[in-house]
Amino acid sequence: MMAGSMAGIGEHCVMYPFDCVKTRMQSMQPSPHAAYKSIPDALFKMVRYEGLFRPMRGMSAVMTGAGPAHAMYYSCYEKLKEMFTADAEPGHHVLAHGAAGCFSTLLHDAVMNPVEVIKQRMQMFNSPFKRCRECLLYVYNVEGPRAFYRSYTTQLTMNVPYQSLHFMMYEYMQDLTNADRHYNPKAHMMSGAIAGAFAAAATTPLDVCKTLLNTQEKTTLQRTKQTQIRGLVHAVQVVYQLRGLRGYFRGLQPRVLFQMPATAIAWSVYEFFKFFLSNRHNHISAKEKVMEKYPPSITSKTSPVNMVSDFQSSTKAAVTVAAATNP
Fold first, then answer.
1. How is the protein disposed in the membrane (predicted)?
2. Apex CA 196: angle with CA 18 and CA 174, to 5°?
């Protein structure tokens, strides 16, 4: 769980500015001051007109939620993967990996959905919120607690296929690049990057709808004469009404560029901590077994190590005495 927690925090924090750009570029009715031509253009304008740390606003909410969410996510995945492939023959187990990813997503999204609502509202252009607590209280008091899970079904609809594709591709790439499944940083990084890019591109339309549900953009509501965007079906209709088919792929480039290094970082950190903690656990277990075999009361006198040490001391003493008596 610690490995998963560290992986989640590292993934989201390092790539957070790109996530902020993606959210803005998915806007259905962007302000003229927030119409960006590319990712560098978006980052440049955000820093120049809104402040150096503007792309980082809302990151504290992600840091709070990503730790426990990813801890449950990875630990559940590893356990289910082990269960689903326990009696299977060696080889590719695509369906087992996909199913483990599906169930893991249910736990992950239950924690991360409220975080996504706060984060994306703070990322939008001209957001009135400066602190996460301020945004949290506003949403809770004005829209009610259900607002934090308004996009939960959409999130699951997106993340279940996303995580299934992600884990299936990662495990497949591991079979190609790291068949022995040893700790291999290059293989973990490359497999994670390819898996993240593939899954992100395939699920971008659902991510656009999720962003619309989370942000409830005022300009979009005014344009469509709606008081609220309710549910996935309604979001799909609004996106098509305003932007046509191309609207479902708004923010595709920043989403893929965000997910590639993010998943590479996540898997690299996760596999490193899993390797480190596993080795540490094995070392401690081996030490405990030695102590069980040679308890302290016995170890001090009859353990192999101390017996050799005593023999060496006796030998040195004998040699010294012999040298003294035979000059």
1. Multi-pass membrane protein
2. 145
Residue 305: predicted pLDDT: 47
- Quote the number of domains for the chain: 2
- Of 261, 280, 230, whose CA–CA distance to 14 is shortest? 261
Average pLDDT over every residue of 79-89 = 79
- Quickly list DSSP for 226-269: -S---HHHHHHHHHHHHH-GGGGGTTHHHHHHHHHHHHHHHHHH
165 Cβ neighbours under 8 A, 6+ residues apart = 98, 195, 198, 199, 202, 203
Do 192 and 87 sit in the same domain of this protein?
no
Q: How many CB atoms lie within 10 A of CB 284?
A: 10
Residue 301 has pLDDT above 50, yes or no: no
- CA atoms of 36 and 41, how far apart (whole Å): 6
**CA 34 to CA 217: how far, in whole Å?**
13
Domain residues for the domain of 226 are: 158-282
Q: Please give the Cα distance from 15 to 240 (Å, whole number).
A: 29
Task: Specify whether 4 is located in the same domain as 145.
Answer: yes
Quick: pLDDT tens for 188-243: 999 999 999 999 999 999 989 988 988 888 888 888 888 888 888 999 999 999 99
* CA proximity to 64, closest of 121, 129, 10, 9: 9
112-160 pLDDT, tens per residue?
A: 999 999 999 999 888 889 899 999 999 999 999 999 998 888 888 888 8
d(CA 291, CA 175): 39
Q: How far apart are the C-alpha atoms of 13 and 55, rounded to whole Å? A: 11
Same domain membership, residue 259 and residue 167:
yes
Q: What is the CATH number of the domain that holds 14?
A: 1.50.40.10
Q: Where among 84, 114, 149 does a domain terminate?
A: 149
> Helix 16-25 vs helix 94-123: angle between axes, to the nearest 10 degrees?
80
Q: Two tokens at 113?
A: 């959905």
How many angstroms from the chain centroid is the CA of residue 312? Answer: 55
